[in-house]
């Protein structure tokens, strides 16, 4: 038996075929252009591959309520051309197989819980910081859902007292994490590309400030046993030690657990690299296919 998996981000669709145990057979990558350009390529890739089910992790916001008329839709995304697009319906109509659907950050958290940096944890947060910011959560080994999936990138945060930047979020301006700490925010604030910022640039102090504030909020609400930070931004500026220090400073001794004490092994990069969401989509198939 074989499964298909898709990790659909705002930049690319990582597609692949695996065994029922999660061993990779084949992979392909397609740019996230418009639905009219990207989805036919994805369908063509999976056709004839004899997969039993498809796991799909998708950028959002998305509708995960199976009783909703718009279940399986990408909703009010800032990604042009994808607003109110029925991604699950389009794939299901073409492939005629079960499709298991969640946010790509929720599935990144799941992938890391099954095969990656959070293997020993029942409660995990995965945050990706790139062109956008998104987060997924596992609580007691279950993906977090309610009226929708988590939207951790739009957590409201305190503005740094020296930061006059107005923010880039289309919905919240400079009030939310994505509006102040995503790649567009960094590059517009400093008028430089991400890769050209020196390691001692003030930009990284601001990044650790904003990301640290968000993480403290996540800790106080969800009490995760592991926090995983991925995305392109985390590859620059030696951010991990700065963020860990900021989190401890903000907690100010209020939380005294082994995780906070050993923070170097608590706030960590993903073991699965850029494939966390892909393997989470595989895990969703393994969990649900009967």
Give your account of this protein's structure.
With about 290 residues, the protein is of the alpha/beta class. The protein folds into two domains: about 1-105 and about 275-290, ATPase, nucleotide binding domain (Nucleotidyltransferase, domain 5, 2-Layer Sandwich), CATH 3.30.420; about 115-270, ATPase, nucleotide binding domain (Nucleotidyltransferase, domain 5, 2-Layer Sandwich), CATH 3.30.420. About 35% of the residues lie in helices and about 20% in strands. It contains nine helices and twelve strands. A five-stranded mixed beta sheet has the order 3-2-1-4-7, with helices on both faces. β8 and β9 (about 135-140) form a beta hairpin. The longest helix is centred in the C-terminal third of the chain and has 21 residues, at about 200-220. It is globular, with a radius of gyration of 19 Å. It starts with a strand and ends with a helix.
The biggest beta sheet, please?
A: 5 strands, mixed
Under CATH, the topology of the largest domain is which?
Nucleotidyltransferase, domain 5
Helical percent range? 25-40%
Strand portion: 15-25%
What secondary-structure arrangement, pairings included, does this model have?
Layout: E1 2-8, E2 12-19, E3 24-31, H1 35-46, E4 53-58, E5 73-74, E6 85-86, H2 87-95, E7 99-103, H3 104-115, E8 124-129, E9 133-139, E10 142-143, H4 177-181, H5 183-190, H6 202-222, E11 226-230, H7 239-251, H8 258-261, E12 267-268, H9 276-288
Parallel strand pairs: 1-4, 4-7, 8-11, 11-12
Antiparallel strand pairs: 1-2, 2-3, 5-6, 8-9, 9-10
């Amino acid at each position: 038996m074989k499964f298909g998996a898709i990790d659909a981000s705002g930049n690319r669709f990582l597609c692949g075929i695996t065994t029922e145990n999660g061993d990779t057979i084949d992979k392909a990558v397609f740019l996230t252009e418009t639905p009219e350009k990207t989805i036919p390529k994805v369908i063509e890739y999976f056709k004839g591959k004899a997969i039993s089910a498809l796991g799909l992790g998708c950028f959002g916001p998305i509708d995960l309520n199976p009783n909703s008329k718009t279940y399986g839709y990408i909703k009010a995304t800032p990604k042009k051309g994808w607003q109110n697009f029925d991604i699950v319906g389009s794939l299901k109509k073409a492939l005629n197989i079960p499709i298991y659907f969640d946010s790509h950050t929720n599935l990144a958290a799941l992938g890391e819980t099954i095969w990656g940096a959070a293997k020993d944890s029942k409660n995990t947060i995965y945050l990706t910081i790139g062109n956008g910011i998104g987060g997924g959560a596992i609580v007691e080994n279950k993906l977090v859902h309610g009226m929708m999936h988590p939207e951790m990138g739009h957590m409201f945060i305190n503005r740094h007292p020296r930061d006059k930047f107005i923010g880039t979020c289309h919905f919240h301006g400079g009030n939310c994490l994505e509006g102040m700490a995503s790649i567009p925010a960094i590059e517009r604030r400093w008028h430089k590309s991400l890769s050209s910022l020196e390691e001692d640039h003030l930009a990284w102090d601001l990044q650790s400030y904003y990301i640290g504030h968000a993480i403290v909020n996540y800790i106080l609400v969800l009490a995760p046993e592991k926090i995983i930070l991925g995305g392109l931004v985390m590859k620059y500026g030696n951010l991990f030690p700065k963020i860990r220090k900021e989190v401890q400073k903000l907690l100010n001794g209020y939380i005294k657990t082994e995780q906070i004490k050993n923070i170097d092994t608590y706030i960590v990069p993903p073991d699965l690299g850029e494939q966390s969401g892909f393997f989470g989509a595989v895990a969703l198939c393994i969990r649900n296919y009967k």
